[in-house]
Structures are given as C-alpha cells and as structure tokens.
Prior knowledge:
Elements: E1 8-9, H1 10-16, H2 23-31, E2 35-37, E3 40-41, E4 47-48, E5 53-57, E6 63-68, H3 78-82, E7 85-87, H4 113-123
Antiparallel strand pairs: 1-4, 2-3, 2-5, 5-6, 6-7
Helix pairs in contact: 1-2
Amino acid sequence: MQASLDSIRIDKWLWAARVFKTRSLASTACDGGKVDVNDEAAKPARKVRAGDLVMVTLPRGRRRILKVTAIGDRRGSAEAAKALFADLTPPEPPRPRQAAPPRREPGTGRPTKRERRAIERLRGF
Length: 125
C-alpha cells in the first residue's frame, strides 16, 4: 500500500463509505452502469480522488449524489463513513397520503357491491 492515499478504486471507496454492503456488490453496480464519476460511467478499477462527484443508482431506483471529501480504504463505523463524503442528494418529495378506507363496524358482514366499488376507487384501482 502507499504511505499516503491520493486516489482509490471506486468499488473499494463505495464499500468503505458504506454505500454498498459488500465490495462485490459495489463492483457489480459499477459493471452494470449504475455508478458515474464526474458524469462518466465508472468501471470498478476507476480511481477517485477528493473532490470527485459520484452518482450511484441504488435498488428501487433511488439515486444518490455524493461528493468525495476524503479517501479511505478501510470500512469503519458509520461515523467514519460519513466523513468520506458530502451527500448532495436532493430530498425525496413527500409521498401523497392516502385516505383511510371506509370503516365498517364489526359484524356487519361483507361489503355490498356499491361499497366495494367505493373502496376500490379510494385505493386507485
């Protein structure tokens, strides 16, 4: 290893920054085109330096934008991982709240056809 790190592989940095649980998941994401460094697709061996902008697409379509502030090659605590990057991800828009379904008193039986259609309309079916 070098005495002082000025750059590190992107898959190793993503693992140390706790973006991915394992280094192999980070490497797979890089191979799959889910990681961009400075608006360019990054392979696992791509080197990152302090000041680089990393965009990661996580499962379920969530996208995180991270600015590299420090280089670390060891996975430490969550506090240590937070010191490796600045999170520039915009906050998610609030999810629309759904109205509660109509309440039926216990023992009144099954919903009628009219009530069932009203329930389906509320749920968005």
